[in-house]
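User: quick one, sequence for these tokens?
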């Protein structure tokens, strides 16, 4: 019997994201003011181009949602940018997964001194009881995921010796 589940979480807007947005607003406003003061139509065109760059490139990267999907013994992570663009960013096979446990679990101690790349698909939620799950994949990657307990339970049903809640 195969299981299927989807879960979506909005990534918290960081101070860096807010700063980037603010700088973009200020730059565009300054170009518009300069166009009005100096009467240069080329500056209006520049402001329009800057606005389009902001709208289609910068804003989507600062307004993210992650969707986690479990199907056919695979966890797929998708990134949704500005509620418009969807991109599958990774697929993790349960056969290659070594461990799935809360990021503060003692079970991760064996992996602490290993050279691993850390991939972050966590919402950055600031709740005290909200802890991301760490997925150790092929011994090379540590992936931080924002998974609810029922999602993890489905994964545990298919890989009981690899998934833990402590």
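Assistant:
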């Amino acid at each position: 019997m195969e299981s299927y589940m989807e879960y979506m979480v909005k990534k918290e807007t960081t101070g860096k994201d807010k700063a980037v947005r603010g700088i973009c607003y200020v730059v565009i406003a300054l170009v518009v003011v300069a166009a009005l003061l100096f009467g240069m139509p080329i500056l209006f065109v520049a402001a329009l181009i800057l606005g389009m760059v902001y709208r289609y490139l910068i804003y989507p990267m600062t307004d993210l949602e992650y969707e986690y999907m479990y199907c056919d013994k695979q966890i797929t992570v998708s990134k949704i940018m500005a509620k418009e663009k969807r991109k599958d960013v990774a697929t993790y096979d349960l056969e290659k997964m070594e461990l799935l446990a809360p990021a503060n679990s003692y079970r991760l101690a064996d992996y602490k001194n290993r050279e691993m790349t850390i991939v972050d698909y966590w919402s950055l939620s600031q709740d005290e009881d909200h802890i991301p799950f760490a997925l150790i994949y092929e011994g090379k990657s540590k992936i931080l995921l924002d998974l609810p307990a029922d999602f993890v339970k489905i994964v545990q049903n298919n890989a009981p010796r690899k998934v833990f809640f402590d």
